[in-house]
Amino acid sequence: MTDSIHISDDFNGFGILIPFVKELGFVLNSYEGGHSEIVYAPSAEHMNSFEVAHGGALMTLLDVSMATAARSVDKSYGVLTIEMKTSFLRPATGALKALGELMHRTRSTAFVQSGVYNEQGELCAHATGTFRYVQRRPAALTQSLDEGASAPKQTTNAISTD
């Protein structure tokens, strides 16, 4: 698998291209001091047969929200999802907001939680997760998407590299 990374201040506020997040249309409003806020307006393609946000899209939103909360204390690091537990409390409709919170951190591990809220402020889904802090690839290995180059092929056993 070839992936490209472009560090910038755009990409819906994330500052780095995360193709799946871009596809879903998440917008990062903030990530500072152990907290993150991401907004998401699910499109028709992101709905399930009950016409509410698909659980997989919500789990991705929770995962990314926790990852950005974990990274908010030291943005030079990336994180990998080790494990995640999700509870769905009510159907998620309309514009959604995920609020992530770093609960505890060690040198290499973050323990995080996040909730997804609807426009009425009702909790629709909640997750807890454990993330591993990892060094980002050296700048020499990253290539601009505008240059059309791709980074060297790398493999990982990680599930998420948010």
Fold topology:
Elements: H1 19-24, E1 27-32, E2 35-40, H2 55-71, E3 77-88, E4 96-105, E5 109-117, E6 123-135
Antiparallel strand pairs: 1-2, 2-4, 3-6, 4-5, 5-6
Explained architecture:
The protein is an alpha+beta fold and 162 residues long. The chain has a single domain (19-139), classed as Hotdog Thioesterase (Thiol Ester Dehydrase, Chain A, Roll). The chain has helices at residues 19-24, 55-71; strands at 27-32, 35-40, 77-88, 96-105, 109-117, 123-135. The protein has a 6-stranded antiparallel beta sheet with strand order 1-2-4-5-6-3, with helices on one face. The longest helix has 17 residues, at 55-71. Residues 1-9 and 140-161 have low confidence and may be disordered.
Provide the number of structural domains.
Answer: 1
Describe the sheet with the most strands. Answer: 6 strands, antiparallel
Output the strand order for the largest sheet: 1-2-4-5-6-3
CATH top level is Alpha Beta
Kindly summarize this structure in a few lines.
The chain has about 160 residues and is of the alpha+beta class. About 15% of the residues lie in helices and about 35% in strands.
